[in-house]
Input
Amino acid sequence: MRLAEIVAARPLVGEGVLVMLTRRCPLRCAHCATMSTMSAPHADAGVLRRFFDTFTVDSHPAVAVLTGGEPLLRPALVTELAAAARSAGTRTAVLTGAFFATAARIPAPVRRVAAAVDHFSISLDAYHEREVPRASVFRVLRELIELGVAVSLHVVGAGPDDPYLADATADVRRCFGTQVPMLVTGLRATGRAASWASPAIPAPGAAAAEPCAMAAWPVVTDDGTITACCNQNVVDGVARPEHLRLGHATVDGWPAVRERTRSSPVLRMLRTLGPRGLDARVAADGGWPAADYCGTCERLGRRPEVLAWARANAAGPGGALLDRQAAHGQADAGPTALVRRYGCAPYADLVDLDRDREPSR
Ligand code: SF4
Ligand code: SF4
Output
């Protein structure tokens, strides 16, 4: 599965799920938004197994992205969940900081993960390079490519003009040609190593429609709570507004979670108008002028009139239709257009670098 396939599916409602296997990580990246450490908690393996067991041939996400913290601290669990997902028809991707890359060869448990998943992605940025040298990451990529594994890099920089991005992406092109597509994002998208899924923060401006494509895939957090997006505050539990809660992996299965994701009128409005567009349209005071994008969403609970308006106007077939149109409009624009909006625009085309290659699997 190519990186571009995963990114292209991101706006499609219920097409994928993000699963945090752990908050733990052996690296010490200075920019880690989650401040992951080796004493941070793992997600409950039994709860994750139970949730994956609810995937069926008739009802399953097309893609499950396995993240952390560092998911490869639990290679056996990643392998097991990937196998369970595949038996239902779900393809999996894993995103790692490659803490194991300084070994002479990829350790056997990680090789088993590579054989089990459909995509293997590694983080690369100036902070990671202080922990894991670029040459070691490149050696792992070469080994994975030889094994026939679809790979990619998530490259993070301070912004479009960051010389690190120019240097790193040119180096990857020089060493790998078009074999290693890259998702290049700004610094905000780091942290939980889920950068292909991090919410965008559109520039402040008129509160026209600014659809939130990030409210399309449920996220299973490390405590089992299932949220509607991967906003760091929401995942961490700093802000878990009721309108973004989809359930809990101890009791809810995929069919119910997907249905809630699809049918929630508030989520439909977030996916079509975006939080600022919704707030500005309904709030008597014209909306929070200075509020940021996700901050507006997190505070919508204080706007009962806004939530009521969303429920009154998006619960029916018209809301469903608009939601579908917004999702397909963004998906049809393609992965490069999506990264132009959510990632680092000048490097957006690198997401589809391997478009002429046959997927290895
Ligand atoms: S940014 Fe990712 S790899 Fe780095 S410490 Fe945090 S979780 Fe680990
Ligand atoms: S706007 Fe809301 S749903 Fe979208 S990413 Fe931000 S917090 Fe999540």
